[in-house]
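Running co-folding for FE2/S2 (inorganic) cluster.
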Amino acid sequence: MYKIVSKTTLNNTTDKMEIYAPFVAKNAKPGHFIILRVDKAGERIPLTITEHTDETVTIIYQKLGYTTSQLGQKIVGDTVEDFVGPLGQEVEIKEASTLLAVAGGVGAAPLYPQLQAYHAQGTKVDLVIGAKQQRYLILLDDYKSICNKVYVCTDDGSQGTKGFVTDFLKQHLKNHTYDHSIAIGPLIMMKHVVSLHKTFNLSTDVSLNPIMIDGTGMCGNCRVSIGDKTYFACIDGPDFPGEKINFDELISRQSFYTEEEHMCQLEELVSNDKK
Ligand code: NAD
Ligand code: FES
């Protein structure tokens, strides 16, 4: 059993949770994820490690499905049944004097340890961070302390520039150049960012965490075609160079489970109603 040592509500859909897990913490590197089970009967869910100390691991999750909603009901002092990791491949921190990072919504969470590592090696990092509305922007203060510049975009214009991150980038890249970039957010965002960056000859790494289900190499959902090769995001990734990824294949596979997620949320609402 793994004890919850702190919990913060970031907005109405997103929590940050710190869990006592010394073995995972000791071995955690940027790019790694964990798999947790809330209770013995629970499903396994993969979540990227956002931060760690010597003894604790911090995760950030959106309460959109059954398990993440169950996790959201836990309080400090409660435990989760399983917390396995670190899993996946440590991300390669490239030699770069300048880096452009792009975060979309809750994708700002897995991006954080990577930018910390770039900042620590002396890379000058500019971040473009986008969210639907101001209240969905997360980790802004943390990012301001490690980035050279933080550019904020919101879909509704409630903070920063109005529009998608790509609307901002189209203008920004006309006057700024970078050695490398990372984009983490919804698949559709990563697809458009990679495609735009290609037109500016800018390489882009992405994280394919959103297509993972069991995180063990067994369900096959995280298969990804990169050029003419097939990889498993949970075993070979979750971070990959974005240029040759077939995003359309991933987007259509992800939408396959939308109905199940919707049913989970309905069941959750009905069971809450009965309480
Ligand atoms: P969201 O839908 O609010 O989008 C966040 C931002 O992405 C938007 O504000 C916009 O700037 C950009 N964006 C969205 N659609 C775009 C488009 N068509 N073109 C260009 N830019 C676009 O995101 P959210 O609801 O906070 O995030 C949830 C998504 O993040 C889920 O799809 C989840 O799977 C994904 N996610 C990804 C990772 C990862 O490792 N890549 C990790 C956690 C969550
Ligand atoms: Fe199931 Fe990778 S998430 S095989």
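Result summary
Residues 268-275 have pLDDT under 50 and may be disordered.
The two ends are 26 Å apart (CA to CA).
Job closed.
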